[in-house]
């Protein structure tokens, strides 16, 4: 690549979907395929034991942005457009840049996931671009009834509230990503054939994952256990009983996830969102929320009021019936859990009783051996003391031997010097003897010695003592 060529943009795979629609499972699979997940991950809980695979910092920031606009994660009303004209927007952009840097560093392929992003797409699209990311959107679909049932179990809501929240999220996620690189998948397809879902994402977004499906398969198969899915919609119930507001988007998004988008469906989705916004005052009234809608017209006139009252009565009756059915299911579930807990408690009691008996027996045996152990310990302590005393004496003896060895070494040095001196003197004496012997031999062999021999003999006789007769 030439040095002056711009480096390729960093890629952000933005997972979009309603709460409880499989966004965590999808983000986890993308992480196993080699995409970088946030550093500060939201921990798992009872509702999502395998983890959420989303950033705690992004979660807190999104909650703060929604709160500043008078909204929250469970609000099915549209976010006020005044948010994007607020002076606080610059503050939130700065915080988003800091969060992206802290969570992903220099990574070039990340997964960004939080269902709240569906409601804040204009903000995050700009924040990602400012951070040098090119967002690629992965929209995951799950049946509205399954999402509502999961939220009912977790939050205790009536199913109608979960369906409305599902509708708001999926409509805003679809509208907010039009014209952007995106692909639609489904939670059901992810669980039944994750390889096909990964291939669909890669092909639809023109993306090459760092890991091959073969390399990631063991981890993904272990991750996508069947117990991830607790609720399945009834195919016989998914038709006429659902209002068109829910049924039609569910059919459209399900078809898109299976076979791709159809541009002619977008007008119908827009019309449903417009109807939802127009009905917002009535829906708030039914839900007991008196807060006015942002920019939504309020129906007026006798016929409109009568129709609103009838619709409200029908909706209230439906909500009461749903709540009654919910309470009955909750009661049956509580009774079943109570029976299970009682049986578990009884089994645990028997197991603990056995363990306590075994522990008590072991403790009594240990106490009976305690005097023996104490006596052995005392004997060992005495032996250690004796060894230490012996070692101390041996240390003194070693020191004395070392001192005496030093003295002997000094004496050896002195004797070696004396030996050297004596050897020198011996050598000199040997030389002198040799010289004298040579001189003696020369004298004995000289002529004068031989001539004077008679004279020496006469002198010896003269000096010899006379013998007395």
TrEMBL record:
Entry keyword set: Coiled coil
- As recorded in UniProt, coiled-coil segments are 370-439
Positions of the region Disordered?
291-315
Name the source organism. Cereibacter azotoformans
Family matches, as InterPro entries: P-loop_NTPase, UCP029407
The name this protein carries in UniProt is Sulfotransferase family protein
């Amino acid at each position: 690549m030439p040095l002056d060529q711009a480096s390729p943009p960093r890629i952000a795979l933005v997972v979009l979907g309603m709460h409880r629609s499989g966004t965590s499972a999808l983000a986890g699979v993308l992480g196993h395929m080699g995409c970088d997940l946030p550093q500060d991950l939201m921990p798992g809980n009872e509702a999502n034991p395998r983890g959420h695979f989303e950033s705690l910092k992004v979660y807190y920031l999104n909650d703060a942005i929604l709160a500043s606009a008078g909204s929250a994660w469970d609000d099915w009303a549209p976010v006020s457009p005044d948010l994007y004209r607020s002076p606080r927007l610059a503050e939130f952009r700065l915080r988003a840049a800091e969060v992206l840097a802290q969570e992903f560093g220099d990574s070039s392929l990340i997964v960004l996931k939080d269902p709240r992003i569906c409601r804040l797409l204009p903000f995050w699209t700009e924040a990602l671009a400012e951070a040098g990311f090119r967002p690629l959107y992965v929209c995951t679909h799950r049946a509205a009834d399954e999402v509502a049932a999961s939220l009912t179990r977790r939050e205790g809501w009536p199913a109608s509230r979960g369906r409305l929240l599902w509708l708001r999220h999926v409509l805003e996620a679809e509208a907010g990503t039009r014209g952007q690189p995106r692909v639609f998948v489904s939670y059901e397809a992810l669980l039944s054939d994750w390889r096909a879902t990964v291939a669909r994402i890669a092909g639809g977004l023109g993306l090459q994952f760092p890991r091959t499906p073969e390399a990631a398969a063991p981890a993904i198969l272990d991750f996508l256990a069947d117990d991830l899915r607790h609720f399945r919609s009834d195919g016989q119930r998914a038709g006429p009983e659902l209002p068109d507001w829910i049924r039609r988007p569910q059919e459209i998004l399900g078809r898109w996830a299976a076979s791709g988008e159809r541009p002619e469906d977008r007008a119908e989705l827009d019309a449903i969102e417009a109807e939802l916004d127009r009905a917002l005052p009535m829906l708030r009234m039914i839900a007991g929320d008196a807060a006015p809608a942002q920019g939504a017209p309020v129906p007026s006139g006798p016929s409109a009021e009568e129709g609103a009252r009838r619709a409200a009565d029908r909706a209230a009756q439906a909500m009461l019936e749903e709540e009654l059915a919910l309470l009955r299911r909750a009661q049956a579930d509580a009774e079943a859990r109570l029976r299970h807990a009682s049986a578990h408690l009884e089994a645990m009691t028997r197991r603990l009783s056995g363990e306590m008996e075994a522990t008590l027996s072991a403790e009594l045996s240990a106490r009976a051996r305690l005097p023996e152990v104490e006596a052995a310990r005392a004997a060992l302590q005495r032996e250690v003391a004796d060894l230490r005393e012996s070692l101390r004496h041996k240390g003194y003896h070693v020191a004395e031997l070392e001192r005496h060895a030093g003295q002997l070494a000094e004496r050896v040095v002195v004797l070696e010097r004396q030996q050297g001196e004596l050897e020198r003197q011996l050598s000199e004496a040997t030389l002198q003897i040799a010289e004298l012997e040579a001189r003696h031999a020369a004298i004995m062999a000289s002529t004068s010695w031989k001539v004077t021999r008679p004279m020496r003999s006469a002198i010896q006789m003269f000096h010899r003592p006379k013998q007395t007769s």
